[in-house]
Specification:
Shape of chain A: globular
Helix content of chain B: 55-70%
CATH superfamily of the largest domain in chain B: Sodium/glucose cotransporter
CATH class of chain A: Alpha Beta
CATH topology of chain A: Rossmann fold
Keywords (chain A): DNA-binding, Phosphoprotein, Transcription, Transcription regulation, Two-component regulatory system
Largest sheet of chain A: 5 strands, parallel
Strand order of the largest sheet of chain B: 4-6-7-9-8
Distance between the termini of chain A: 14 Å
Structural class of chain A: alpha/beta
Helix content of chain A: 40-55%
Number of strands of chain A: 5
GO molecular function, one term (chain A): DNA binding
Oligomer: heterodimer
Distance between the termini of chain B: 56 Å
Strand content of chain B: 5-15%
CATH superfamily of chain A: Response regulator
InterPro entries (chain A): Bact_response_regulator (IPR050595), CheY-like_superfamily (IPR011006), Sig_transdc_resp-reg_receiver (IPR001789)
Radius of gyration of chain A: 13 Å
Pfam families (chain A): Response_reg
Protein name (chain A): Response regulator
Radius of gyration of chain B: 35 Å
Chain lengths: ~120, ~900
């Protein structure tokens, strides 16, 4: 498979968990943990998939998603949004901005694997 | 025989006694005990600094030289106190309502807070008072010399100058010690006033004792003494009516205008009703002082060898009769007269010099104005201390230059006529709304100039400053400018001539120019305030609010008034506006009150300038606004009721606005609350779920990884527990279900525990000071929870290079106050109202707390009957924990 995923998340323990799950599944995992220069990190690393947390230090995940969709190169890039606030308003907001998929914390590991594999397959 | 050593010994004991009196009075006032300090008797006695060494020694000399004329010196003030009581009362009322610090301040403040007028009055006062101070030094030196002549065992003192220098230095020390202890004019100099009152008693007693000795001891009783008086040239009533009138008017004016009289009469006045007592008691005192002057003079002229200085009869008569004890007492009386005058005069002058000359210069040299760093308070105190020393040095040098030759009374009269130049501006200012700044300036300049030319400069004697030719023919031969015959009118007594012309031209300039020029709006408003002081003691309107930053004002006020006083004043003002915390809205009323308070410390003009710099309104914009307001000023004066109502409305509106703002913010927060709780709970749960699934599903993990992952699960579970604990704690506290375990604990123990619990080894340096030995009756666990929170907040959020947290405890008004102030950047004003709400975190979750800490602290303090507030205007973030002291006891 050998695909690359860029994980943008600020909680160290959650980074460790997701990295472990995905690497065991054969993914190459890159991580980035602040909002300010996240868009730049996507541009330099050119991943096949981005996992993006909503509440990041410095800049909101929504703003980052808006920028990614606005740029030509990343307009079609699969983005999986993660949020710890499981309210419908957050989900609507994510869909409106063009998130490929939305997932509330906490999630099951199987759920996570299924979501990322779906996103790169389609 | 009285020995010089004994004299010096007794003087030193007496001085030590005065120090003790002043010190005791200060202590008593500080403890709030000295109600006897504030009695009308002490006030009246302090007024008696009018009677200086000139009166003590000089009056006798005066009577010996010029007969009954000496009585004018007592007559003038008595007439003012009795007949012009209402004018004096008006001056005192104005002084109190406007926080006036000196006569220069009064005149400057009345004429639109003019700096120039303040400087002019100050300079004239210093020039006019310096000879008078020299006179006091001279009297002490002469008295010591008289003793040393009588003391056959001693060589005559070679150097009288050294005596004068020692006396001047001692007085400077005393005055600096008790005269510059505190800054605000409201906090009066209890120690000095008490010492002056004691000296007043001593000098009266001494003079009466000498009088009794002369009449009954030497003169042979009342009848014999009266015969002796009839036989002497003094008995023939020869008084020049013009001199009599001029001198009475002059001494009356002096009572109102002398800086030292203004100091004791207006500035140190404790209650207005004291004036009522003084209006009859002070004339009585003066009468008692003048009672024995003529007998002493007549007997002295009879008994003493011709050529003996009549100024010293009070001392030399008992010495010649071998009554050394009485002579010692008489010396102490003269010493008291001289020292009390010098002390009060130098306090008054130093206040003027510091407020009207030094501070304006210092302020204008500070580019940033009042906002520069550094403590203005210490600058003011230093400048006052230096001014005191300067004034005394000036007096000493005048004494050296003038050679101490002129008769005492002559110097005194020249001083009187100098300060009498303030009279037109003073009376015009408090009785005539039309008087304006240009008129006052011109009057003072012309009057002061004429006085300098006709009285002051000639007083050094012909050939010293003015040459004999100038005296005889006028400068450069211009005849109508002769100092003793202005405009060619010769033949008048020089003193009458000088007083007549200087006051006539002074008054004419004031009235004429006031009629033909227009006052600025500021002058008009101040004029109305002063002239109609009894109608409304409300204060000048002058500031338009909204522009000023309350926090900046607070920083400035703390520097001038001191931190605790300023905070208390701001808190009260905020409370009066219906706001909580320490920052009132900068309304016109508040700014005006602040200005008046500051004026008590640094003078009206300076306070006005300082607030002007901060409110951003340069004088121009304020005056522009006031020009508009001026039209309506008249109507406003009559509609104060309407104003009160609109003030009430504005207050309510402000309260509503504040409440509304808070509600809006709170509703936004309520929305955020659920999603916050959700976030705080779900984040640790995510890790727990993910790692527990990993552990369950993959049996092939090595031991290290396994241990690590279960460690994470444990850690996150703890985080969850902590959050739930906090939430629970808060909800219990909010619903008042909490049970307090009250016990008596020492504050130090609680703080020690909090410091230990936060792991004091961190980067944060702790500074602890203050009354930590206080014993409290409180819930130790809960209180230390609050302290722990504040300390760990400083550990987390203080962003200084080397973070430092100062914990200071003290007691104020029955409250225990513990301040936690760090040296970071503090909290922005718009966030200060929110930090005590739940889940409010400044910045973005950088430090990992859930944002419940301060909310919990607030609830705990409310349960303990105290409060926790943000303390603005500190160097960094400041929190104030307040607990009522009832139930708390001072350490035994």
């Amino acid at each position: 498979m050998d695909k690359t995923v860029l994980l943008i998340e600020d909680e160290p323990n959650i980074i460790e968990a997701i990295s472990f799950i995905l690497m065991r599944d054969g993914w190459r995992v890159a991580t980035h943990s602040n909002g300010v220069d996240a868009v730049g990190a996507v541009a330099t690393r050119r991943p096949d998939l981005v996992i993006l947390d909503v509440m990041l230090p410095g800049r909101s995940g929504y703003d980052i998603l808006r920028d990614l969709r606005a740029a030509e190169e990343t307009a079609e890039l699969p983005v999986l949004m993660l949020t710890a606030r499981g309210q419908t308003r957050d989900r609507e907001m994510a869909e409106q901005l063009g998130a490929s998929r939305f997932m509330a914390k906490p999630f099951s590991n199987a759920e996570m694997l299924e979501a990322v594999n779906d996103l790169v397959r389609s | 025989m009285a020995s010089l050593n004994l004299l010096i010994f007794v003087s030193l004991i007496y001085v030590a006694f005065l120090f003790a009196v002043a010190f005791g009075a200060e202590r008593a006032a500080l403890r709030g005990q000295g109600s006897w300090l504030r009695s009308p008797l002490v006030y009246t006695l302090s007024l008696s600094i009018y009677c200086t060494a000139w009166t003590f020694y000089g009056a006798v000399g005066y009577a010996a030289r010029s007969g009954m004329e000496y009585l004018t010196i007592y007559l003038g003030p008595s007439l003012v106190m009795i007949g012009w009581f209402w004018a004096v009362r008006k001056m005192v009322r104005i002084g109190r309502s406007q926080n006036i610090t000196s006569i220069a301040d009064l005149i400057s403040s009345r004429y639109g807070k003019s700096t120039l007028l303040g400087v002019l009055v100050t300079v004239l006062a210093v020039v006019g008072t310096t000879p008078y101070i020299a006179l006091q030094l001279q009297s002490v030196t002469l008295a010591v010399a008289a003793f040393s002549q009588a003391d056959v065992t001693m060589r005559p003192l070679g150097d009288q100058n050294s005596t004068a220098l020692w006396v001047a230095a001692g007085l400077a020390f005393f005055t600096v010690l008790f005269g510059t202890r505190n800054l605000d004019a409201n906090e009066r100099h209890h120690g000095v006033v008490m010492a002056v009152a004691v000296e007043a008693v001593v000098k009266l007693f001494a003079l009466v004792a000498v009088g009794v000795f002369v009449v009954w001891g030497i003169g042979g009783g009342v009848g014999a003494t009266l015969e002796r008086i009839d036989a002497s040239p003094l008995g023939t009533w020869s008084v020049a009516p013009d001199r009599w009138l001029a001198l009475t008017a002059l001494s009356a004016a002096a009572l109102l205008c002398l800086p030292r009289m203004f100091q004791v009469m207006v500035v140190e006045n404790e209650e207005e009703r004291h004036l009522r007592t003084a209006s009859w008691a002070f004339p009585l005192y003066l009468m008692a002082m003048s009672l024995f002057v003529v007998p002493i003079a007549v007997v002295g002229l009879d008994l003493m060898p011709a050529g003996e200085n009549p100024d010293l009869f009070v001392l030399s008569l008992p010495l010649a009769e071998g009554r050394s004890g009485l002579a010692l007492l008489s010396f102490l009386g003269g010493f008291s007269s001289a020292t009390s005058m010098v002390i009060v005069a130098s306090i008054a002058l130093s206040t003027m010099v510091s407020n009207h000359i030094v501070m304006p210069i210092w302020l204008s040299r500070q580019a940033g104005g009042a906002m520069v760093s550094g403590d203005v308070r210490s600058v003011v105190l230093l400048s006052r201390r230096l001014s005191i020393v300067g004034v005394l040095l000036l007096g000493y040098f005048y004494y050296r230059v003038s050679g101490g030759s002129t008769a005492l009374a002559a110097i005194g009269l020249i001083s009187f006529s100098g300060v009498a130049q303030f009279l037109p501006a003073l009376l015009g200012g408090i009785f005539w709304r039309g008087a304006n700044r240009i008129g006052a300036l011109a009057g003072l300049l012309i009057g002061g100039g004429v006085w300098l030319w006709c009285l002051f400069l000639p007083s050094f004697g012909p050939g010293v400053i003015l040459s004999a030719e100038t005296m005889a023919d006028g400068p450069f031969g211009v005849g109508w400018l002769r100092p003793y015959a202005l405009f060619g009118i010769a033949g008048l007594d020089p003193l009458v001539h000088g007083v007549f012309w200087s006051l006539l031209l002074n008054t004419t300039a004031l009235v004429g120019l006031s009629l033909f020029t227009f006052p600025t709006p500021m002058e008009r408003l101040q004029g109305a305030q002063f002239v109609n002081v009894f109608d409304h003691t409300a204060g000048a309107r002058g500031w338009s609010g909204g522009m000023a930053q309350s926090e900046d004002l607070m920083i400035m006020a703390q520097r001038i008034l001191g931190a605790a006083e300023a905070q208390e004043m701001f808190r009260r003002a905020a409370l009066a506006q219906g706001l909580e915390g320490y920052l009132p809205e900068p309304t016109a009323d508040f700014l005006q009150m602040l200005e008046r308070d500051l004026a008590g410390s640094v003078g009206a003009a300076t306070a006005h300038a300082m607030i002007g710099q901060i409110t951003g309104g340069a004088n121009i914009s304020v005056e522009d606004l006031m020009a508009v307001a001026d039209e309506t000023a008249q109507i406003m004066e009559h509609s104060s009721q309407l104003e009160a109502k609109s003030a009430e409305l504005a207050r309510t509106a402000r309260q509503l606005r504040a409440a509304n703002e808070k509600l809006t913010l709170l509703s936004v927060q309520k929305d955020a609350f659920l999603s916050q709780i959700s976030h705080e709970l779900r984040t640790p749960m995510t890790s727990i779920r993910a790692f527990s699934e990993i552990l369950r599903e993959s049996g092939d993990l090595d031991v290290t990884t396994r241990t690590k992952y279960s460690g994470i699960i444990h850690e996150e579970a703890e985080r969850l527990t902590r959050l739930l604990d906090d939430l629970l704690d808060l909800s219990v506290l909010e619903n008042a279900q909490v049970r307090l375990t009250l016990a008596e604990v020492r504050l130090r123990a609680i703080l020690d525990r909090a410091v230990a619990a936060t792991g004091a080894s961190g980067r944060l340096r702790l500074v602890r000071r203050g009354a930590e030995e206080m014993v409290l009756n409180t819930d130790m666990d809960r209180l230390s929870q609050v302290f722990i929170n504040l300390i760990s907040n400083a550990q987390k959020y203080c962003d200084a290079e080397s973070p430092e947290l100062t914990i200071s405890a003290r007691e104020m008004d029955g409250l225990l106050i513990v301040d936690f102030v760090d040296n970071g950047t503090g909290i922005a004003p718009d966030s200060q109202a929110l930090i005590f709400e739940k889940f409010s975190r400044i910045g973005h979750q950088q430090a990992g707390g859930a944002g419940l800490g301060l909310a919990i602290c607030r609830e705990i303090m409310a349960r303990l009957g105290g409060s926790i507030t943000y303390l603005p205007g500190q160097q960094g973030a400041g929190f104030r924990v307040t607990l009522p002291m009832h139930g708390a006891m001072a350490a035994q």
